[in-house]
Amino acid sequence: MFKLNKTLHKWLSLFVGLQLLIWLITGLYFNLMDHKKGAGNANLRTVVHRAKVPHTSLIPLQSLAIKPAQSIKLLWILGQPYYQIIEQAGAHRYQTKVVYLLDAQTGTPAPLNETLARTIALKSFKEAVNITEARLLEPPIAALPKEQNPLWQVILNDANNTHIYIEHSSGQVIAHVNDDRRLRDLAFKLHFMDYMNTGGFNHWLIIIFAITTLVLSLTGATWLIERFKAGQLSLIFKHHKKSVTVTELTSQQTHTLALETKSSLFDGLIASGIQLPSSCGGGGTCGLCKVRCKSVVNATSADKARLSDAKLEQGYRLACEHNAGEVTDIEVRAKLIRCDD
Amino acid sequence: MAFIGIQFLIWSLSGLYMVSMDIHFIHGESLQAQTKQPIALAQVNYSFSNLLSEYPDAIQVELTQLLGKPIYRFVDKNQRKYMLNAQTGAPLPLIDKDRALLIAKHNMRGNNSIASVQLIDDTSTLPSELSTRHLPVWQVVFEHYSSPTFYISQHFGNIVTKRHFFWRMFDWMWRFHIMDYDDGENVANWFLLFIALLSVSAALLGLMLTYQRVFKPSSTGAN
Ligand code: FES
């Protein structure tokens, strides 16, 4: 059972490992970033649209042929009054809606034109700047994946490559998308695993990864608890040392080392400068860290899984599965030695 | 490093909750009935121009409806809120308890009965799930295991926010996810920074192990 736990942990780490690192690094970025800059708002300022217009100049709604509407707003766009007719709208601004503008003085349809979009864009930008291009985009809009309505895109020739998006049905500035914002959006895309550009985080890919990561964490935690129980991890560091005679077979040297009784033999040997071969880092799964014990040491399930009966019989055990306290005299074949005594 | 394990567990658990729960459901959008009747324009005898002559500073003027009756909502330059009867132009009184209950029932998709109703008009009684800018509001809680709650503006009679158990849970998950254990508002806290840095190193070390194990099987082998 416990072995299955370890195996699962390893394979899951292979599956989610890279994404896990991406989550952590982007998470770190969210922690450190400048949020105002990241939102693209470093150069954003409010555009004043409201102006005094003689109230008598507004055309009465009754005189207009207006289709049934949920609500009607009186808007100002650059000093001119408009009726914004909302036939249908969702809970969020970006959701598909049926909304259009009428000139509130003449009653004629007045979709936001390019001149207005350009002027609004310039007014919403703190510095003096030139426009390279302006065009009306239909969704989907790459930079704003959630958007389901047409937007004006006004491209500036500033150093930060700003694109200003303005809502076609209201003249509202939706976003300044510049290089800072693109970096943040990329981080979000990576963090949300939104590789299909949905603009959100409720999708099957991330759900599968989240489940896998949860299992990875759980198997990891079980493993830690197991090691803790085995006495290989202790919260309070009590230094109990014990002398162990270690014979290194390649160099035919024998050392008497003082090893920490509570840490694993594997770790204890490393601390004394003898590194055993390993590819699991002391996890009890690679079977490379074998040592021969001259006294009797009970074999653990990991020993039995990784070592043949003959080896077990000869006294071979996995160094990472036993504490230094259990042995007195051992033979090892080290990968690296750095002994000073 | 072993302590990081706990945070990894918290991150994966809270992350899983947040990605697997539909965000629109979390926002309570499914609680609210979506049957919107068009405004009865024929009844609107008080025009936008009447409104502007009486309230020249009005902004965010909207002609909409409340319980089937056409109304105007707007604010003035001091952000004071106004609501007028669109038939007569008469200012409408603040929403009282009975109206609040009517609005709540009218907007609730299910026909759950009301568990409690209460006026929240100062910050001392403000629940943490509500932003100050909405005050004053009527809090209407429905009978249901998830305690669906509508917050209804006393000035405007509209539902400013909907909350339910799953939202509250999401909010906690978010706090755990960003490790902000006081108000859930701050992604840039030092604690998170510290743990995240430590975690990146832990994950890198773990990945190195995985890499060694899977892509570089040692020739000595295990037996
Ligand atoms: S180090 Fe891999 S089994 Fe001991």
UniProtKB/TrEMBL annotation, chain A:
Residues 242-338 form the 2Fe-2S ferredoxin-type domain. The keyword Manganese does not apply. One of its GO terms (molecular function) is iron-sulfur cluster binding. Signal peptide: none annotated. The chain crosses the membrane at residues 12-30, 203-225. Keywords: FAD, Flavoprotein, Membrane, Transmembrane, Transmembrane helix, Ubiquinone. This is Na(+)-translocating NADH-quinone reductase subunit F.
From TrEMBL, chain B:
The chain crosses the membrane at residues 190-211. Keywords: Membrane, Transmembrane, Transmembrane helix. This is PepSY domain-containing protein.
